[in-house]
TrEMBL record, chain A:
It comes from Myripristis murdjan. There is a cross-link at residues 93-156 (3'-(S-cysteinyl)-tyrosine (Cys-Tyr)). Keywords: Dioxygenase, Iron, Metal-binding, Oxidoreductase, Thioether bond. Belongs to the cysteine dioxygenase family. Pfam families: CDO_I (PF05995). Fe cation binds at residues 86, 88, 139. The gene is CDO1. This is Cysteine dioxygenase.
From TrEMBL, chain B:
This is Leucine rich repeat containing 58. The keyword Repeat applies. InterPro entries: Leu-rich_rpt (IPR001611), Leu-rich_rpt_typical-subtyp (IPR003591), LRR-SigEffector_domain (IPR050715), LRR_dom_sf (IPR032675). The keyword Repeat applies. PANTHER family: LEUCINE-RICH REPEAT-CONTAINING, LEUCINE-RICH REPEAT-CONTAINING PROTEIN 58. It comes from the Eukaryota.
Length: 176, 352
């Protein structure tokens, strides 16, 4: 049986259109979304207008509201900027590198006592897509570079509202 | 490769010669008028081994980016760019010996030398009176010179990713410093004088060798971001008994101060008057005592915004003294009410 080739999104607008198509259905095929996002080759002139950096911390810039089924957000990370350890409150989270690199550290869900256990760590290279959801665990994302900023494209489905953050040393949690 | 003027957009004062694989830069083919009109010159991502002396013909240049080349030195002629405000030279092979002698006389406001080979912050940098932003991330700096206090206009100081072991108290003399990055270094302690950095909004200390912080850090009223993860911060109550019994001089001094015994300059020799002026108040509000040289170092946990437990160091006048609001100094579940930081003051403490 032949596979129908998924068309490659040439531009960011193409990618957004194709995501709207995929998300018409209520069932999300994680691999399909991941492959689609990965096949878009980042072109800075297409997303530069969303890439607003802040001196003090990373920024979130809304790109598309996805008909309420997902949202597409661009995050800009200055040198050394990082997030706390957080969950994804029952959502799918896809993260694609548009420029630079980000370090993702995954943690197990905490047991009642003790330090949080680190599961894995990886560097996400340009154009690559990482996926995470609550059944996989928690993660911290940071720009470990002291010389370059980083820009990432995030897709949350259902749309991002709140998440919980975690203290690595004491396993206490709080809502954001 | 020859430069063609057409490589850059006309009339907007920007010349973009980045990412062109240039080995050398010959600007002879650019009209004098064009050179004079250029405000921003991008030479980043090429293969320049040196900056040409003809750079000085861009007499009105305000921004120069020479990042990602193979530069080992910067020519004297750059000092001739009297209007240059921003110099970006990331990812080269520059060190503290690469700069022209008169570099310190330039009018620079933004300097970015991250990703180079600096082992020291050169004297020429600390002479730049107008400097607002200094980035030396990802170098090989072992220390911060006390002369950093000369940079009275400094607002941003990025020193992440170096080999720094200590923070000089003189850093606290920078009145406008709002963003201080010291992550990924080898810092073991933070001087309490940093409490004077009233403008500090963001302090990045993650991935260092800190076990505690000075209590004074709570006075940084404008601090909104504080990152401390990746430090071996003490998690359990630790009481360090480094207490030498007080001398007779100290006991006499304590009595005079705590009982408000009046004294006048004609009563005492100058050195004793000076000694009495050095009295420090014990932070225990129930204790009206003072101490001079003899004190107990004590680590207390303070809740930040009801979220994270920070180990802070402070000094008590005697082992019998207890920390403010604590009835049992052995407890490790204390929250120091009088100094607990309200949530709107400290919005992001990245400890975990």
């Amino acid at each position: 049986m032949e596979h129908t080739e998924v068309a490659k999104p040439e531009t960011l607008d193409d990618l957004i259109k194709m995501l709207h198509e995929i998300f018409k259905s209520d069932n999300i095929n994680v691999e399909e979304v991941q492959t689609l996002m990965e096949s878009y080759e980042s072109k800075p002139q297409e997303w530069k207008k969303f890439a607003i950096f802040d001196q003090y911390r990373y920024t979130r810039n809304l790109v598309d509201e996805g008909n309420g089924k997902f949202n597409l957000i661009i995050l800009c990370w200055g040198e050394g900027h990082g997030s706390s350890i957080h969950d994804h409150t029952d959502s799918h989270c896809f993260m694609k590198m548009l420029q630079g690199q980000l370090k993702e550290t995954q943690f197990e869900w905490p047991k009642s006592q003790g330090d949080m256990v680190q599961k894995s760590q990886r560097i996400l290279l340009e154009n690559k897509v990482a996926y995470i959801n609550d059944s996989i665990g928690l993660h911290r994302v940071e720009n470990a570079s002291h010389t370059e900023g980083a820009v990432s494209l995030h897709l949350y489905s259902p749309p991002f509202q709140t998440c919980q953050t975690f203290d690595q040393r004491t396993v206490s949690r709080h809502s954001h | 490769m020859e430069i063609h003027e057409a490589a850059a957009g006309p009339g907007d004062g920007v010349l973009d010669f980045s990412h062109l694989n240039l080995n050398t830069l010959s600007v002879d083919s650019i009209r004098e008028e064009r050179k004079r009109d250029t405000k921003q010159l991008y030479l980043n991502h090429n293969r320049l081994a040196s900056l040409p002396s003809s750079i000085c013909f861009f007499s009105n240049l305000e921004l120069l980016d020479i990042s990602n080349n193979g530069l080992t030195a910067i020519c004297e002629d750059i000092v001739g760019l009297r209007k240059l405000k921003t110099l970006i030279a990331k990812n080269n092979r520059l060190d503290e010996f690469s700069l022209p002698k008169e570099f310190g006389s330039m009018q620079l406001e933004v300097l970015n030398f991250s990703g180079n080979r600096f082992e020291e912050i050169p004297l020429q940098f600390v002479k730049l009176q107008r400097l607002q932003s200094l980035s030396l991330g990802g170098n090989r700096l072992k220390s911060i010179p006390a002369e950093i206090e000369n940079l009275t206009s400094l607002e941003l100081l990025y020193l992440g990713g170096n080999l720094i072991t200590a923070i000089p108290p003189e850093l606290a003399n920078l009145p406008y410093l709002s963003y201080l990055v010291l992550c990924d270094n080898r810092i073991q302690s933070v001087p309490p004088q940093l409490t004077r950095l009233h403008s500090l909004r963001s302090l990045s200390l993650h991935n260092n060798l800190l076990t505690y912080l000075p209590r004074e850090i709570l006075s940084l009223v404008h601090l909104q971001e504080l990152s401390l993860r990746g430090n071996p911060l003490v998690v359990r109550f630790v009481k360090e008994m480094t207490y030498d019994p007080p001398s007779l001089l100290e006991l006499a001094g304590r009595t005079i101060k705590s009982r408000n015994i009046p004294y006048y300059p004609c009563d005492l020799p100058a050195h004793l008057l000076h000694y009495l002026d050095l009295a420090s108040k014990c932070p225990n509000p129930k204790c009206a005592g003072v101490y001079f040289d003899s004190c107990v170092r004590h680590i207390k946990f303070v809740d930040f915004c009801g979220k994270y437990r920070l180990p802070l160091m402070h000094y008590l006048c005697s082992p019998e003294c207890t920390s403010p609001c604590s009835s049992n100094p052995q407890s490790d579940a204390e929250s120091e009410d009088e100094s607990s930081v309200p949530a709107d003051r400290l919005q992001r403490v990245l400890l975990g």
